[in-house]
Write a structure and sequence with these properties.
Largest sheet: 4 strands, antiparallel
CATH class of one domain: Alpha Beta
Shape: flat
CATH topology of one domain: Gyrase A, domain 2
Helix content: 40-55%
Mean pLDDT: 93
Bound molecules: arginine
Distance between the termini: 50 Å
Low-confidence stretches: 1-9
CATH architecture of one domain: 2-Layer Sandwich
Strand order of the largest sheet: 1-2-4-3
Radius of gyration: 28 Å
Number of helices: 22
Strand content: 5-15%
CATH superfamily of one domain: Arginyl tRNA synthetase N-terminal domain
Number of strands: 13
Length: 593
C-alpha cells in the first residue's frame, strides 16, 4: 500500500489524472472507454477545482447515454484511485468532472518536480529529428526573414533536445542558384579583387546585376558552367561564400543561436545527387518529359513540380528532393521540419507529395517520417508593409539587433544610476552585457510569442518594454526571484531539498504550484505542436502567478520556519523554470537587472 501510495502521488498531475480516468472510463464502458482521451485540462477558474476532465460528454454521445449520469458513474469508479491525491471529484455543468488536489499530494508532486530535469522525462522515441533553419542566400545580407527562420528553428531544436532527442540542425544555404551566379558574373565583369571583398560589395554587385536584366542569359550560362565544375568559377564562388558566411556567423554569435559551420548543408552539398533524383523519378514512372523539361504530376492539382529544366539545369525543388532523402535515409530523421517563410507553402507541399509518391519518407524501421513545413509570416514596418529601409532595401539583420542592444543598454544604465537599484554597483562592462541580453531577448521573444504564421509589426518600443508579455518582463521576473536568494544568504543553485517539505496553504501558493507543475507538459506540447508561443504564454502566466504570490505571501518574513522554507523552495523552482524556459527560447537570464 505504501509504495502504491507513493507512486500514485508522484509525477505530472495531468498524466496521473489521465491514467486514473482512463482506467475509470474502462471500468464503466469497457474498451471503448479505455481508448478515449479523458481530456484532462488545468482549471481556468480555481473556484471549479484545479483540473477539469472534459472527455465525458463526447463519450456519452457515442454511448448514447446521459452525460451527467455517466460522469457520476465515472467519478464513482475513479474514487478509490483518486483518493490518494484529490478531494472527492464533483460533476458540474453538462458533464464536466472537477478535481481538486489534496495539499499533501501537491506538496509531494512539487518535491518530485524539484530535480534538475524539472519533471521532464526524456522521450521514449530516441530517433533523431532534422530541422531545416536559417537558409541564408549567399552573396546577400541576412535579413529579417532569415532571422525568423533562425530563431524559431533554434528554439524548436532546443525544445526537442530538452525532450532528450538528437536534433540535426540543417542550414540549407542558398549557394548553388542563379543569385550567386549573377553576383559572380557581375564581379568578374568588373574585374573586382575577390580577396578584398566586403558584404556591401556583394550587395552592390547583386543589385547591379538585378538592374542589368539583359544579363540574365549570361548569368544562366555562368550558373551552368559553375554547376559543371569550372575550376576558376568554383574558386571565386568559394571566396564569395567566405565573405557572406563570416557575417552570418557574427550574427549567429550575437543572436546566441546554436548554429555553426558544422550545421551547413548548403544546396551545393547535394549537387552530385541531383542526376540520380531525376533518374529515379523517371525509372519509377513518376516523372515525364514536358516540352524538354522533366516534371512530376500530382493527381489532385494542375501545377506540376519541375525537377529538371529544358536546358538541363536543376532547380531549387530538385535539391530539396535530394535533401529530404538524405535526411530520412542517411540521418534517419523520423521528423523533418522546415522552418521557412509561408510564401514557400506550395513548394513544400509539392516536394513532400513527390517524396511520398516515390517513398523516400520510409525509414529503416519501416515507419514513415513526418515531413512538416512550419510556415511563418513577414515582419512588417510601422506602415504595415514588409520591413524596408528608407531607400527600399531589405533591412539587414545586424542593424536591427544593434539598435535593440543600444536601446536596452541605455535603459539598463539609467536604472543602474539610481542609488539603491540592484545593479548600482555593477561594472560598466557587466551592464553592457545585461543590455545585450535584454536587447536580443526582446527581439527573440517578440518573434516567438506571436502565432508564427501571422505577420507582425516590428515595434522596438513594445518589444523592449519591461511590462506586458515581453522578453524583458520575463527576464525581470527571473532577476527579482534571484534577489531573494542573496537576501536569504543562499546560493542560486543550492539544492534546497534539505529545507524540508513544501507546505501549500494560501491560494496564491497553490496557483503558483499548479502553474509550475504544468511546465513539462508545456515543453512537450511545443515539441509536438511546433508552436513556441505556447511556451511564451506559459512563462508569462508563471511570472504573473509569481507576482501574485510575492504580493500575498511574504517569503523572508513568513510566519514560522516551515512556511518560510517552503516558500524559499517555491521561489527556487520558479527561478529554475523561468531560466530553463528562457533558455529554450534561446534567451539569457541575467541574475540582476
Ligand atoms: N534559401 C531559401 C530562401 O531564402 C530558404 C531555404 C529553405 N530551406 C529549404 N530546404 N528549401 O528562400
Amino acid at each position: 500500500m505504501a509504495t502504491d501510495q507513493a507512486s500514485r502521488t508522484s509525477g505530472d498531475p495531468v498524466a496521473l489524472l489521465e491514467t486514473i480516468f482512463r482506467d475509470a472510463f474502462g471500468t464503466v464502458l469497457g474498451d471503448a472507454g479505455r481508448d478515449a482521451d479523458p481530456l484532462v485540462r488545468t482549471g481556468r477558474n480555481p473556484q471549479f477545482g484545479d483540473y477539469q476532465v472534459n472527455g465525458v460528454m463526447g463519450l456519452a454521445k457515442q454511448a448514447r447515454t446521459n452525460p451527467r449520469e455517466l460522469a457520476g458513474r465515472i467519478v464513482e469508479a475513479a474514487a478509490g484511485a483518486l483518493d490518494a491525491i484529490a478531494e472527492p471529484a464533483e460533476v458540474a455543468g453538462p458533464g464536466f468532472i472537477n478535481v481538486r488536489l489534496k495539499s499533501e499530494a501537491l506538496a509531494a508532486m512539487l518535491d518530485d518536480f524539484d530535480t534538475p530535469r524539472l519533471g521532464l522525462a526524456p522521450d521514449a522515441d530516441t530517433r533523431p529529428i532534422a530541422i531545416d533553419l536559417c537558409g541564408v542566400n549567399i552573396a546577400k545580407q541576412m535579413h529579417v526573414g532569415h532571422l525568423r527562420s533562425t530563431i524559431i528553428g533554434d528554439t524548436l531544436a532546443r525544445v526537442m533536445e530538452r525532450c532528450g532527442r538528437t536534433v540535426h540542425r540543417q542550414n540549407h544555404l542558398g549557394d548553388w542558384g542563379l543569385t550567386i551566379a549573377m553576383v559572380l558574373q557581375e564581379l568578374r565583369d568588373r574585374k573586382a579583387d575577390l580577396d578584398a571583398l566586403s558584404l556591401d560589395d556583394l550587395d552592390a554587385a547583386y543589385r547591379a546585376a538585378q538592374a542589368a536584366n539583359d544579363d540574365a542569359d549570361r548569368a544562366k550560362q555562368t550558373l551552368i558552367r559553375l554547376q559543371q565544375g569550372d575550376d576558376e568559377l568554383l574558386r571565386d564562388w568559394r571566396k564569395i561564400i567566405d565573405v557572406t558566411m563570416r557575417a552570418v556567423y557574427e550574427s549567429f554569435d550575437l543572436l546566441g543561436v546554436r548554429l555553426g559551420p558544422e550545421n551547413n548543408r548548403p544546396e551545393s552539398f547535394y549537387r552530385d545527387r541531383l542526376d540520380a533524383v531525376v533518374e529515379e523519378f523517371l525509372a519509377a514512372g513518376l516523372a515525364e518529359t514536358d516540352q524538354g523539361a522533366i516534371i512530376v504530376r500530382f493527381p489532385d492539382r494542375k501545377r506540376p513540380l519541375i525537377i529538371r529544366k529544358s536546358d538541363g539545369g536543376f532547380l531549387y525543388s530538385t535539391t530539396d528532393l535530394a535533401a529530404v532523402k538524405y535526411r530520412v535515409q542517411e540521418l534517419g530523421a523520423c521528423r523533418v521540419i522546415y522552418v521557412v517563410d509561408a510564401r514557400q507553402r506550395d513548394h513544400f507541399r509539392d516536394v513532400f507529395d513527390a517524396i511520398r509518391l516515390i517513398g523516400w519518407d520510409r525509414l529503416a524501421d519501416g515507419d514513415t517520417a513526418q515531413l512538416v513545413h512550419v510556415p511563418f509570416g513577414s515582419v512588417l514596418g510601422a506602415d504595415r508593409t514588409p520591413l524596408k529601409t528608407r531607400s527600399g532595401e531589405n533591412v539587414p539583420l545586424s542593424a536591427l539587433l544593434n539598435e535593440a542592444i543600444d536601446r536596452a543598454t541605455t535603459e539598463v544604465r539609467k536604472r543602474a544610476a539610481v542609488p539603491d537599484s540592484p545593479t548600482h554597483d555593477l561594472s560598466d562592462e557587466t551592464l553592457a552585457s545585461i543590455g545585450r541580453a535584454i536587447g536580443i531577448g526582446a527581439i527573440k521573444y517578440a518573434d516567438l510569442s506571436s502565432d508564427l504564421v501571422r505577420d507582425y509589426v516590428f515595434n522596438l518600443d513594445r518589444m523592449i518594454a519591461f511590462e506586458g508579455n515581453t522578453g524583458p518582463y520575463i527576464q525581470y521576473a527571473h532577476a527579482r526571484v534571484c534577489s531573494i536568494f542573496g537576501k536569504a544568504g543562499l546560493e542560486l543553485d543550492e539544492d534546497l531539498r534539505r529545507l524540508g517539505p513544501y507546505v501549500i496553504r494560501e491560494p496564491a501558493e497553490k496557483t503558483l504550484a499548479l502553474a509550475l507543475l504544468r511546465y513539462p507538459g508545456v515543453v512537450r506540447d511545443v515539441a509536438e505542436s511546433l508552436e513556441p508561443h505556447r511556451l511564451c504564454t506559459y512563462l508569462f502566466e508563471l511570472a504573473n502567478a509569481y507576482s501574485a504570490f510575492y504580493e500575498n505571501c511574504p517569503v523572508l518574513k513568513a510566519e514560522g520556519e516551515a512556511r518560510r522554507h517552503s516558500r524559499l523552495r517555491l521561489c527556487h523552482i520558479v527561478r529554475r523554470v523561468l531560466a530553463d524556459g528562457l533558455d529554450l527560447l534561446g534567451i539569457d537570464a541575467p541574475t540582476r537587472m
